[in-house]
Amino acid sequence: MRQTFDESTDPSFGSRHVPLIRAAMARQGLDGFLVPHEDEHQNEYLPAANDRLAWASGFTGSAGAGVILSDRAAVFVDGRYTLQVREQVDQAVFEIRDLVEGGVPAYLETASAGSVIGYDARLHSPQALDSLKAAAAKAGAELKPVALNPLDEAWGATRPAQPIAPIVPQPVEHAGEDSASKRGRIGASLAALGADAAVITAPASIAWLFNVRGGDVIRTPLPLSQAIVSADGSARLFVDPAKVTEDLPAWLGNQVSVETPDALDAALADLAGKSVLVDPGQSSAWYFDTLAAAGATVVRGMDPCTLPRACKNNVELEGTREAHRRDGAALTRFLHWLATDGQINPPDEKEAVTKLEAFREATGVLKDLSFDTIGAANGHGALPHYRPTERSNERAALGSLLLVDSGGQYLDGTTDVTRTVAIGQPTAEMVQRNTLVLKGHLAIARLRFPAGTTGSAIDAFARAALWAHGLDYDHGTGHGVGVYLGVHEGPQRISKAPNTIALQPGMIVSNEPGYYKDGEYGIRIENLEVVMPAEDIAGGDRPMHRFEALTLAPIDRRLIDKALLTAEEIAQFDAYHARVLREVGPRVEPEVRAWMEEACAPL
């Protein structure tokens, strides 16, 4: 098993570790300290050595923050983690507060006048620090950068070692473009901006730019490292020597020098007098401070690899399509098991997760899961980011829904798919609300939209059917996805939140509307889609884009009220299922294929 059901923290972490942090704070004359979830690479998923918020508080969610003052402390989470945080964090030590409504800035406004609150500049983006500093100033407090992180000092010898997984080449047969060509393109873009170089700190950008992958971060094949790319296409890569395999320097080529992380400070000093592009959303404030102190001219702008990485080339797209056919066959075997054995002996959450992982493992080419599988039975389905543990594991009840959100990492692609399955006979309400979610999913999937349209402009199409019944969901409709990289990849997304990045051909994005009834059930239908140029529309005068579904797996027909669907929606749904049967059917065993004939039959 790649996924475990163990809990790596417990609520005692707060009472055990906060006094140690406060003692380290006091030695530095600090009255408080900021504990972000993000690490030095602004990662979403963290190696154990960098999961500082979890060590301090016990909270293990993928988004959050903490503030530890000398006399009180708080943990901040968004709506996805409301239940989880209360189970994991000792509320006698930490107050639980909303990350979105007010968040950390509002808490800092209550700090004592004259207090000094420390922060580690390597862990905060300059954008985030601007609002935090303003909030502290409003209270008469001061935010002060620290040379030694007091949490790291308190963690001491028990802190896990930094990961040193080997860096391996990602062959051009999967990447579709060699690194020299990519670096040439990035260098040309820097020259066009008048920049001499760019500092790249996002591990996904480094993996893409140099056509390498690593294993430093769970569920994502990232090599933790930094790079400086010059306008002439040459680069300096700063990486722990333990990760450098014998063939890596030859793979990178003569234009790339491989150096130790200790050389990074001097390399930044070498940029004195030069114009250097740094992304304020992906690089920490430390880089901006260090470059400014060295006498470089810092240009704030998007990481130059971000958009090229998001717009997949034809080789990447063909690989991704094949990965989804392969993954779709594994998922279909799982859905067949749920539709047969699972209806007679309803599984518990652990059994469902284990069974699905085994089907993916049986492909023989699974590199990892793309995230821990969300196998949510009964009321757990109403928690969008639920992960079963030994303690929380529940058996699916007859008359309930089982929500399974999962994905795999393969050399040729990254998958992410959610299916909601009825266990026994669903209620009329479950069927009605699942059908409303399906209507939103289909609306996004068939949409034609003008070039230049952002994801925030189309989000309402996924919600309209739910809104008409006074319903909604509180997460985004879609996130970007990489190719054998992150399952959550920017800059594209589909959500209510404003987004200035247009959806462009080659971008992969999820399509995952949902509905959640607290304590009872959850519904989500998720496919990955790729943005493609659309055929010309007669009489139209603008270039248009469309979505092509990448995910191929049956959707539970027992949860659909055909009377709520239009003729267009029925035809669209039937065409999708016909494609699933055509492309996945030949890849599964005869008994599974026979079940597919019924599961994918026209409505």
UniProtKB/TrEMBL annotation:
<keyword id="KW-0645">Protease</keyword>
<dbReference type="Pfam" id="PF16188">
    <property type="entry name" value="Peptidase_M24_C"/>
</dbReference>
<comment type="similarity">
    <text>Belongs to the peptidase M24B family.</text>
</comment>
<dbReference type="InterPro" id="IPR036005">
    <property type="entry name" value="Creatinase/aminopeptidase-like"/>
</dbReference>
<dbReference type="InterPro" id="IPR050422">
    <property type="entry name" value="X-Pro_aminopeptidase_P"/>
</dbReference>
<dbReference type="Pfam" id="PF16189">
    <property type="entry name" value="Creatinase_N_2"/>
</dbReference>
<dbReference type="InterPro" id="IPR000587">
    <property type="entry name" value="Creatinase_N"/>
</dbReference>
<dbReference type="InterPro" id="IPR029149">
    <property type="entry name" value="Creatin/AminoP/Spt16_N"/>
</dbReference>
<keyword id="KW-0479">Metal-binding</keyword>
<dbReference type="InterPro" id="IPR000994">
    <property type="entry name" value="Pept_M24"/>
</dbReference>
<dbReference type="InterPro" id="IPR033740">
    <property type="entry name" value="Pept_M24B"/>
</dbReference>
<dbReference type="GO" id="GO:0046872">
    <property type="term" value="F:metal ion binding"/>
</dbReference>
<keyword id="KW-0031">Aminopeptidase</keyword>
<dbReference type="InterPro" id="IPR032416">
    <property type="entry name" value="Peptidase_M24_C"/>
</dbReference>
<feature type="domain" description="Peptidase M24">
    <location>
        <begin position="319"/>
        <end position="531"/>
    </location>
</feature>
<keyword id="KW-0378">Hydrolase</keyword>
<dbReference type="GO" id="GO:0005737">
    <property type="term" value="C:cytoplasm"/>
</dbReference>
<dbReference type="Pfam" id="PF01321">
    <property type="entry name" value="Creatinase_N"/>
</dbReference>
<feature type="domain" description="Creatinase N-terminal">
    <location>
        <begin position="21"/>
        <end position="146"/>
    </location>
</feature>
<dbReference type="Pfam" id="PF00557">
    <property type="entry name" value="Peptidase_M24"/>
</dbReference>
<dbReference type="GO" id="GO:0070006">
    <property type="term" value="F:metalloaminopeptidase activity"/>
</dbReference>
<protein>
    <submittedName>
        <fullName>X-Pro aminopeptidase</fullName>
    </submittedName>
</protein>
<feature type="domain" description="Peptidase M24 C-terminal">
    <location>
        <begin position="544"/>
        <end position="603"/>
    </location>
</feature>
